[in-house]
Write a structure and sequence with these properties.
With about 325 residues, the chain is mainly alpha-helical. It has 2 domains: about 15-65, no CATH class; about 70-315, no CATH class. It has helices spanning about 10-20, 25-35, 40-45, 65-105, 125-135, 140-150, 155-160, 165-175, 180-185, 200-205, 210-225, 260-275, 280-295, 315, and strands at about 50-55, 55-60, 240, 255-260. The chain has a two-stranded antiparallel sheet with strand order 1-2. A two-stranded antiparallel ribbon has the order 3-4. A hairpin with a 2-residue loop joins strand 1 (about 50-55) and strand 2. The protein is globular, with a radius of gyration of 23 Å. The model has no long low-confidence stretch (mean pLDDT about 95).
């Protein structure tokens, strides 16, 4: 049965509803936040505080739930998104650069020739997406207009890559032959001991580098951050951890697969050692979690996929080499 759309609620009605359901709040402070962030957006941050009745959340809040804690969680998540966006940007720029070099070695327009990609790659669909991205950027991108005027709209790979989304770039990486995928991964400092994997795991990794799925996940995490959506308790497209757990720095990845933000933070932290040598990004992530999340009432780092003893992992405490 289709339900009726909920009626609009005024700020005063929302405040009264929160108090009625057991949330403690200071009205002027809460009204300010509802006016700037909105009831609906904040509701995602107080949802875990609603009493669990069997497998469903009720309307009432757990004892001790305060509006101030909800705001603190929201602010933590906002700062985490900022850090993630900063980290992914640098990884994405390096990936574009490496793809430019790998594909450009065959020619400026080599990306137009499906012969340079694996047979299973849907080259035609990727090119369709590429043309949409170029059309989208034509009005505001001087380089695209320059190539329209002087080269008949033919964009060399190093110009084209600048108008692609990270998801398009990650799909281009996925379409490359395994040998080229592995070369780029090693330029990112990802050294995998295939001998430490089972035969089936090693065979899969040889055919398609494990970073393929991780770049796919990072693109989703990046888009989540860019659209100001929640990171802290969200699930993402799972990425296998079997091969990357062979990298000494990534032994704390969850066994089997990772779909929470912790895995993405770990992989970003490793890739940033190559993309931004000397970066203090990992230290900033640790400080943010330690100071802004760990003290929150009713919250646990496990909601983000962090292992219990993550703080003891040298990956999060040592300085980059």
């Amino acid at each position: 049965m289709t339900r009726r759309v909920k009626p609009y609620g005024s700020p005063d009605e929302h405040l009264a509803k929160l108090e009625q359901r057991g949330m403690t709040l200071e009205r002027e402070f809460a009204a300010q936040w509802l006016g700037s962030v909105g009831y609906y957006r904040l509701s995602g941050y107080w949802y875990p505080c609603r009493v669990l009745n069997g497998s469903r959340r009720g309307d009432s809040f757990e004892a001790g739930t305060s509006f101030a804690d909800v705001v603190a969680l929201y602010e933590f998540d906002r700062k985490l998104r900022t850090l993630v966006h900063d980290g992914v940007e640098r990884v994405e720029v390096m990936l574009r650069t490496r793809l430019n070099e790998s594909v450009g070695a065959y020619g400026a327009l080599a990306y137009l020739d499906r012969a340079h990609f694996r047979p299973t790659f849907d080259h035609a669909a990727w090119l369709d997406t590429v043309q949409r991205r170029v059309a989208r950027s034509r009005r505001r991108n001087d380089a695209v207009r320059h190539h329209d005027e002087h080269y008949g709209g033919r964009l060399p790979i190093w110009v084209l890559s600048e108008v692609l989304d990270f998801a398009d770039v990650s799909r281009l990486y996925e379409g490359l032959p395994a040998r080229v995928q592995w070369e780029i991964a090693e330029q990112f400092g990802v050294q995998i001991d295939l001998g430490a994997l089972s035969k089936s795991q090693a065979d899969r990794a040889k055919k398609n580098h494990p970073l393929v799925r991780w770049f796919e996940q990072l693109a989703i995490v990046r888009n989540t951050s860019a659209h100001h959506a929640r990171l802290w308790n969200r699930s993402f497209a799972p990425a296998s951890t079997a091969a990357l757990r062979m990298v000494p720095a990534l032994v704390s990845l969850p066994d089997g697969q990772s779909e929470r933000v912790y895995g993405a933070l770990c992989v970003m932290g490793l890739l940033l050692e190559a993309a931004s040598p000397g970066t203090t990004w990992r230290a900033k992530v640790r400080e943010l979690v330690d100071t802004s999340f760990a003290q929150l009432h009713g919250r646990h780092v496990g909601e983000m996929g962090f292992p219990e003893a993550w703080c003891d992992d040298p990956f999060w405490s040592r300085r980059p080499q």
